[in-house]
Amino acid sequence: MIRLAETTDFKTIFEIINDASIAYKGIIPEDRWHEPYMPEQELHEQIADGIMFYCYEEADEVIGVMGIQDKGEVTLIRHAYIRTKDRNKGIGGKLLQHLCQSISKPILIGTWQAAEWAIRFYLKHGFKLVSTIEKNRLLKTYWHIPQRQVETSVVLSSVPQ
Fold first, then answer.
1. Is the confidence at residue 161, as pLDDT, over 80?
2. Distances in whole angstroms, Cα of residue 127 to Cα of each of 3, 77, 106, 154, 158
3. Maximum CA pair distance of the chain?
4. Alpha-carbon distance 153 to 103, whole Å?
5. What is the CATH number of the domain that holds 128?
6. Would you say 111 and 143 are in contact if contact means Cβ atoms under 8 Å apart?
7. Residue 79: exposure state from Cβ atoms within 10 A (0-12, 13-18, ≥19)
8. Chain mean position to CA 116
9. Number of domains making up the chain
10. DSSP state of 49
11. pTM over 0.70, yes/no
12. What SS3 class is residue 12?
C-alpha cells in the first residue's frame, strides 16, 4: 500500500533514509558523506520546505519512502529510499509510478553522479539525463545544495531537454 506520510511517520522516514543511504558510503565524494547521512534537523527542514513524503507499506511496516516537492513549474522527486533488507523487490518502481501518475507537470530528479544504480533506475523508468549546463542551471534554480554537491550530481527529467 502506498500512502501519504503522516507526522507520526517522521522517525520511520528518518530511519529508512539513514539505513538506505549507507549505499552511498565510499561511493559519493568523501567530503559529502557524513553520519547520519541526513540528521533529524535536516529532515525537519526538508519537510518544512515543502517535501511531502509517501510511504510504501507491507504487513503494517513502512519499508520505502519517496518525497515530492512542488516548485511551481516543475515537481521534484526527493529522497527516494528503500530499507536495505527490502531492496530489489520493485518497491521503488511502484512508488515512482504512483507519484508520477499524480503529477501533471515536468518532473526533475537529482542524484549523485557516482550513484550509477540510481541513474540506471530512473533511466529504466523513462527519465532522461540533462546536459551538464542544464543540470547546473536546474540545481541552482530548484535545489538548495552546496556548490560541491552541484559539481558531483546529475539531474534527470521526465521531459527531453
1. no
2. 23, 12, 11, 12, 5
3. 44
4. 24
5. 3.40.630.30
6. no
7. buried
8. 14
9. 1
10. T
11. yes
12. helix
* Segment 48-105, tens digit of pLDDT: 999 999 999 999 999 999 999 999 999 999 999 999 999 999 999 999 999 999 999 9
Grid coordinates of 122: 530512473
Neighbours of 123 (CB within 10 A): 12
Q: Which stretches within the chain are classed as H helix? A: 10-20, 40-48, 91-101, 116-124, 132-142, 147-151
Long-range CB contacts for residues 25-32, cutoff 8 Å, separation at least 24: 27/112, 27/114, 27/115, 28/112, 28/114, 28/115, 28/152, 29/114, 29/148, 29/152, 31/148, 32/112, 32/148, 32/149, 32/152
Return the half-sphere exposure (C-beta side, CA atoms, 13 A cut-off) of residue 90.
Answer: 3
Distance CA 130, CA 19 (A): 29
Beta-carbon contacts of residue 85 (< 8 Å; ≥ 6 apart): none
Structural domain that includes position 136: 2-157
At 60, is the secondary structure helix, strand, or coil? coil
102: its cell numbers: 499524480
